[in-house]
Write a structure and sequence with these properties.
The chain is α+β, with helices and mostly antiparallel strands. The chain is 46% helix and 12% strand. The protein is built from 17 helices and twelve strands. The strands form three sheets. It has a five-stranded antiparallel sheet with strand order 1-2-4-5-3, with helices on both faces. Strands 6-7-9-10-8 form a five-stranded antiparallel sheet, sandwiched between helices.
Length: 502
């Protein structure tokens, strides 16, 4: 049985390798966007055939830089094409795999004989890209206003411009059986830990998937825990943020066709740190970070605590507030869990509808719909005023996270907390919190603990975690990354302030 399988596999390989270039062009000719045209050189009367896939080729390049030279310059052999045409990287080959790959990248295939298996591949790729614009997801008032594009070459240019170093290393892989998507792994050699780099390269090389459309595919495939709602790689559209994090010893993954880059290994606290924090004074930035952390806790816990208190622990309500709650719930026919779920789902419906509609219509739906539905539900006696305010504040607090995917996780977490609060009151809230902490403690990012530097405790890394200390005090790179060069700069020299006369 095994011998038969081995013989069949060898036979398949021989069949693929025996395929000729003419058979490949015949297969491509079954598609109507494939063109194979015959031309004659005006001087030498030499016939030649040009094959290409029409949507991938820039005809202006073909007319000015390729076809005009092929028609008017003396050409007798394929080597003459290299001497005549002023285009870089002309490949003369008979390899079927190379011809197929390059033609799908926008190359012309020139043959001096219609049925020859050997020809010249000339680059004439059409580039359809948009201009560099301002960040939309990670917008900042101060700081650079450039964002990644869908072009891998331009994205790498934006990084090279910010890190003009010979140690900036880029490894390009092709993943996807059908899409053959280019994926760039970027790191700084001599700073990034070799184990982290090898982990990323190995996981991407092991990907078995037919099509890679966006960097989100890579994130889902190479993440340590596929069942966790928490993103385990940091997603960003800002080249300045990627350049800054690369200098710390991290690795970036950039996918051709995606305007977002992935960064790893990452930690939980980084999802609550905006890159704008580094453009502000350290105590202002620390204050904003603490506000974000408080907002996340408020968003997740306030509604479950409301439900648990009214169902099981009403004695905890202050006397001055008890009358207000009784008045607001006097005509409500539903228990607290029902009205809480009703309002939470309503908020999610409005958010989803606003995200799927055009920008101006979505903003109108979000504002008008929220006001109308909230007011109508209170007047109809379906929900209370107090809960409406709490749910609205919780929804608003969930949008303070700088990373969009983390905001989705926070909104999802409220529902398990609500259900356990209904079952066991505040004990259920504590149980949910313990379950959440247990999950975060065992979660990793590229094999590194997700809760660092809090657990395991890295006291030296706390200077840029929950709060951000002055830049002059961050002379060492994060210990959690195990960088090859742990020292970033001399702390003593950074604190020296010389006058102009000295």
């Amino acid at each position: 049985m095994f011998k038969w399988l081995f013989q069949k596999r060898n036979k398949t390989k021989q069949t693929l390798s025996s395929k000729t270039v003419s058979e490949l062009l015949s297969t491509l000719g079954q598609s109507m966007d494939f063109q194979k045209r015959a031309f004659t050189n005006i001087n030498s009367k030499q016939h030649f055939w040009v094959s290409y896939i029409e949507p991938l080729v820039d005809f202006e390049i073909v007319q000015k830089n390729i076809l005009s030279y092929l028609l008017h310059s003396p050409i007798e052999t394929l080597d003459d094409i290299k001497q005549v045409i002023p285009v870089e990287n002309i490949i003369i080959t008979s390899n079927v795999t190379v011809v197929e790959e390059k033609m799908h990248e926008g190359y012309l295939f020139v043959q001096l004989n219609e049925f020859a298996n050997k020809g010249a591949l000339i680059k004439a790729q059409r580039s359809v890209i948009r201009n560099v614009s301002i960040p939309e997801v990670e917008f900042s008032v101060v700081g650079p206003k450039e964002t990644f594009l869908e072009s891998l070459e331009i994205n790498l240019h934006l990084l090279r411009k910010r890190i003009p170093s010979n140690n900036l290393t880029i490894k390009i892989l092709k993943i996807g059986k059908l899409s053959k998507t280019k994926i760039a792994i970027v790191y700084i050699k001599g700073i990034a830990d070799d184990e982290n780099v090898n982990t990323v390269i190995q996981r991407i090389n092991d990907i078995e998937f037919d099509q890679i459309v966006d960097s989100s595919y890579i994130e889902q495939i190479i993440s340590d825990n596929h069942n966790s709602p928490f993103p385990q790689l940091l997603d960003t559209e800002r080249p300045d943020r990627v350049a800054s994090i690369l200098t710390e010893g991290k690795i970036a993954v950039i996918v051709d066709g995606s305007p977002h880059a992935l960064i790893g290994p990452t930690t939980l606290v980084e999802f609550f740190a905006s890159f704008e924090d580094y453009f502000l004074n350290w105590y202002i930035a620390s204050f904003f970070r603490l506000i974000r952390l408080f907002s996340v806790a408020f968003s997740v816990l306030i509604t479950p605590i409301y439900v648990a208190t009214l169902n099981y622990h009403y004695e905890l309500i202050p006397k001055d507030l008890l009358g207000t709650l009784i008045t607001s719930r006097r005509e409500i026919p539903f228990p607290p869990i029902v009205e809480a779920l009703f309002l939470e789902l309503t908020i999610e419906l409005l958010r989803e509808a606003g995200a799927r509609l055009p920008t101006k219509v979505g903003q109108t739906i979000g504002i008008v719909g929220g006001i109308v539905i909230g007011t109508a539900s209170v007047e109809a006696g379906l929900t209370s005023n107090v809960l409406l305010i709490l749910v609205a504040l919780a929804a608003l607090a969930s949008f303070t996270t700088p990373v969009y995917k983390t905001g989705n996780t926070i909104r999802l977490m409220r529902f398990p907390f609500l259900l356990f609060a209904e079952l066991w009151g505040l004990l259920g809230v504590v149980f949910s919190f313990c379950f959440l902490m247990g999950h975060l403690l065992q979660l990793t990012s590229l094999g590194r603990p997700f809760l660092e530097p809090i657990y395991p405790l890295r006291a030296a890394d706390l200077k840029d975690a929950l709060i951000r200390l002055p830049l002059s005090s961050q002379s060492k790179r994060p210990q959690q990354l195990r960088p090859s060069q742990p020292i970033r700069f001399s702390r003593k020299k950074a604190k020296q302030k010389k006058d102009i006369d000295e």
